[in-house]
Structures are given as structure tokens and as C-alpha cells.
Amino acid sequence: MDSQRNKVLIIDDEPVVIQAVNKHLRKDGYEIISANNGMEGLSLFKEENPVLIILDLRMPEMSGLEFLTKINLSPDSSYSVIVLTGHGGDEEMEKCFDFGVTAFLNKPFNAYELRGIVRNAISLKRTQYDLVNQIRAHEKLEIEIRKSKLSFHNIVQKSTDGILVIDQNNLVRFANPVAEILLGRSATELIDRPLGFQVVSGEPREIEIFSNGGKAGVAEMTITESEWEGTTAYLALLRDITSHKQMEKALQESALKLQKAMDGSVEAIALTTEMRDPYTAGHQQRVARLACEIGRVLGFTEDRIKGIHVASTLHDLGKISMPSEILTKPTRLTNIEYSLMKTHSQVGYNILKNVEFPWPIANIVYQHHERIDGSGYPSGLKGDSIMDEAKIICVADVVEAMASHRPYRPALGVDVALEELSINKSFLYDPDVVDACLKLFHEKDFTFE
């Protein structure tokens, strides 16, 4: 994605709205292009390649929802969409999020909120776009490496191996020319002399050899029992695997670099979310730390725990679409505000569902507010219908949230949070996960510090 792109396309049938958005966004250096309906907007979208679309829903000729069906918005699209409307209902809002809309802003809007949501939407899209491309690059590299391995295997199979015959006294009785080259000694220097390696038939072993050019290399030596001149002997086959070892090392280094790149992208996305709510900064990282430790107590593999860490770090990603006034409100949310806040699980799922992580991250994020008695959201799942990883993040999220300060209340403390788990164990929270969490605090002295 070209970081220099700064075109914002506004599609709205109210000229006064276009003028207001134009006025506020030009302060941040955006180039504004506008259309009065979806049909005109679609034409400009194809011509101008904007980085962001600000879209009204109800317009003549083509509505905002019809426009969304035409542009095929997806996680690897190079643009984001913010819906700006004065008529949007819950059903329309849900459809917008299903189409992949980043944020929903009601008219009349607050200029500061508009500018903040625009900055966050563009930043999130660039990070998401980079993450998708990094994952695809990793997949492409894996394909190339598999092709290289197959090619290397074919070359090795068609090449001549080194062959040695060794008697029961560990003396070399025969060496072919390839064996001479690999061992760096002539047949005269090898025959009737000890090999220098322990002769044991069975599994292949690796030995140091002289590869082409006299440089040290590695050969795989396989020894099988045989006969030589009527007596028991051993047949040793030497295969130069120096290139294979170098390829393995290069693959490991490349995989490590890609893993670091993915981790960095995940952390960047999480930071983007938390920057909108300074009161919960660090929340996702603390939840991730506790969730991973719970997974270890439950005996999860380290690979599965890595998936828990990524999902925990991104579990509140959907809050990027929430108005900042709701995130930082110093009093409890109204029913309408709470209903809007509850959509963050669905929004997080929509953002992540097409990103091919090694773990089911999108589904874990989607389920992290479900409760085992079916009272959670967004789908009211029960018991075993909820993924174990989501159950773990649910418990860790509750403990961290209750133990920490929030705009609408002071910190309740860890003891109160653990009491909540104990009271609702087997009702709201999985009993095994609760027991593992309590063990961490009571027996292993876990802290968030």
C-alpha cells in the first residue's frame, strides 16, 4: 500500500455534510473528492483509488448498502470504509459490519471524533494490509522451499553415493571414487586403515566430510551388515547432505524472521486499538499473559499457547469501530451504548476472518464473550460449543478488567475478581479454566506486574 496515498472519497447526498467533512479533513492533509450518490461514487472509486471512503446509507439512485455490494471490500483491500449516516438502524449497522465496514459514525458528527476515526481507520487498514501480505509472502516462501527440497531430493537420488566396505576389525576394504572425494583421502590412504568412525548398523548418522572445494561439509552415513570376500563386513553409504543442512538453516532463519514480522504486526494492531482508549492501555497484553499461563497449567502445547497469545492480543480489535465517547465514558453505558459495544466481537471477527493464521484466531475473538450457560454474546453459545481458547480468554479478561481501573469505577482488585470466578464457576465460566486460574494466583503467586 502506497503510504503517500491520501485521497478520501465522500459519498453523500447532502452538500452541507460534504462541505463539513471536507473542511475538517483537509486540516489533516487529505485530498477530498466527493459524489452525491452511490452511482457517481462508484465511478469515482474506480477512477481515483481512494485510501478511505466515507459513505452515507440512504441516497438516490444507489444506496450505501448497494454501493458496498459493488466494491468487494475485504481484509486485503487497500482502502477502508466508514459509514456516516443519520438514519442507520441496528439491522443496517449489522449489514455494514458484515460487508467489512471499519467504523460507524452518526450525524451530526463531532469534528474531533471524525478526524480521530479517519486516522485510526487508515492506520488499521495499512497495518492489516501489511499483515495479510506478510502472511501471503510466508506462504509463497514455503511453496518455494518445498519445490527446492523436491528438486534437491531428485538431484541426490540421481547422483552417485560414496561407498565403503568395512571389515569386522573396522578396517576399510573398499572405497569408491566418490567416497575418496567426500572423505578427502585417496583409496591408498583409506584401504586397510581404520575408518575413524564407530561402525554401527542401523539408523543413519551424520559425519564431517570434505565437500567440493575442500570445505568442511556433512554427509549422512548409513551402515548395513553385508559380506566381503566370504566374511561378514559392513557396507557404508555416504550421501553429501551439506546443501540440505544449509537449506534447513536458511529455512529456520526465514521462518524466524516471518514469525517476528507477524508478531510485530499483531502488536501494532493491538496498539492501534488501545490508543483510542488510554484508560485500558495494556489490557490486551495483560490478558494475553494470564491466558497463556492458564493454558500452560491446563497442559496446552506451546504452539497452542502461541495461538492463545495472538488471539488474546487481538481480542478487543473490534473496539476500533466504537466511538471514543463510549470507550472513555466516565459513567455506565446506556442500553443502546452497551448494545453497540457488544458488536465489537463481531467486528473483530469480520476483520480477522480472511487472515490465514496458523490458529483459528477469528473464531476465538468472536467467542471470547460467550458464557457456558448461554448468557454471553454474540451467539449465546453454551458449554462445549465454545472453543477452549475462548473460555480461557473469557476468564483472563474478567480478572484483568475487574482488577484494573476503568473510567466509570475504580479498580475492584484481584481478590474480588477471583471471588467472581468462584461464585460463577460452572455457571458462567468453565470450571477447569477457573481452577487453573485460581491455582496461578493462590499457589504460583501470579501477578500482572
List keywords for this structure.
single chain; Rossmann fold; elongated; 3 domains; alpha/beta; 17 helices; Beta-Lactamase; five-stranded antiparallel β-sheet; Hypothetical protein af1432; five-stranded parallel β-sheet; 449 residues
What best-fitting shape do the alpha-carbon axes yield?
Answer: elongated
Largest sheet, described in full? Answer: 5 strands, parallel
Tell me the radius of gyration: 31 Å
Total count of domains: 3
Overall helicity: 40-55%
**Strand arrangement, major sheet:** 2-1-3-4-5
Derived from helix and strand composition plus strand pairing, the structural class reads alpha/beta
CATH architecture of the largest domain: Orthogonal Bundle
CATH topology of the largest domain: Hypothetical protein af1432
Beta-strand portion reads: 5-15%
The total count of helices amounts to: 17
Helix-strand topology string: EHEHEHEHEHEEHHEEEHHHHHHHHHH
* Cα-to-Cα separation, first versus last residue: 38 Å
Unreliably modeled segments: 152-159
- Specify the CATH class of the largest domain: Mainly Alpha
CATH superfamily assignment of the largest domain? Hypothetical protein af1432
Protein model, in words:
With 449 residues, this protein is α/β, with parallel strands linked by helices. The protein has three domains: 121 residues, 3-Layer(aba) Sandwich (Rossmann fold); 82 residues, Beta-Lactamase (2-Layer Sandwich); 168 residues, Hypothetical protein af1432, CATH 1.10.3210.10. The protein is 50% helix and 14% strand. It is built from 17 helices and ten strands. The strands form two sheets. A five-stranded parallel beta sheet has the order 2-1-3-4-5, with helices on both faces. Strands 7-6-10-9-8 form a five-stranded antiparallel beta sheet. Strand 6 and strand 7 form a beta hairpin. The two termini are 38 Å apart.
